[in-house]
Amino acid sequence: MKTTKLLAAASIALACSPALADGHADAGKEVFEESCERCHYSDDYAHEAESVVVAMIKAIRSGETRHRPPLKDLTDEEIASLAAFLANQ
Ligand code: HEC
Questions:
Q1: Helical H runs in the chain?
Q2: Mind listing the pLDDT tens digit of every residue in the chain (89 residues)?
Q3: CA dihedral defined by 60, 33, 45, 62, rounded to 10 degrees?
Q4: Which residue's alpha carbon is at the smallest distance from atom 32 of ligand 1?
Q5: Which sequence spans correspond to the domains of the chain?
Q6: Cβ pair 52, 88 in contact under 8 A
Q7: Of the N and C termini of the chain, which has fewer Cβ atoms inside 10 Å?
Q8: CA gyration radius for the chain?
Q9: How far is the centre of ligand 1, averaged over its atoms, from the C-alpha of 25 (Å)?
Q10: Is 75 helix (H, G, I), strand (E, B) or coil?
Q11: Which residues contact 75 (CB under 8 A, 6 or more apart)?
């Protein structure tokens, strides 16, 4: 299953890079390339603070913000990783 693969990728990235445990931007890059890159540029949200990107993605997941795809399968950890990656481009 796709989610399992993403989680595995995230765990591997985390395990290999303890220095990134705080932001885990590498794991976010993997999720981005897998799920977002076909529609977004990696620097689409580079001007936003990490916390703002987290809030935007969570608003999509909850259905508050309309978005295709609905991103319902993202975990809190994947969202944090995505935000760490996107806000630091
Ligand atoms: C099928 C195309 C598509 C995919 C895949 C996609 N997006 Fe989007 N996304 C859009 C479009 C279109 C918009 C609205 C365009 C705009 O605001 O510039 C948007 C808007 C957004 C916004 C802004 C929402 C707001 O509050 O204005 C965020 C954040 C976002 N996407 C994150 C993501 C993330 C993270 C992923 C991957 C997990 C993703 N998107 C995957 C098409 C996509």
A1: 2-16, 25-35, 50-62, 76-86
A2: 566 665 566 555 555 544 444 558 999 999 999 999 999 999 999 999 999 999 999 999 999 999 999 999 999 999 999 999 999 99
A3: 10
A4: 57
A5: 2-86
A6: no
A7: N
A8: 12
A9: 18
A10: coil
A11: 3, 7
Sign of CA dihedral 17, 18, 20, 23: positive
Burial class (CB in 10 A: 0-12, 13-18, 19+), 49: exposed
| Position 63, amino acid | G
pLDDT at residue number 20: 45
Other CB atoms within 10 A of residue 24 CB: 22
Ramachandran region of residue 71, left (φ > 0), alpha (ψ -120 to 50) or beta?
left
Ligand 1: centre distance to CA 20 (Å): 25
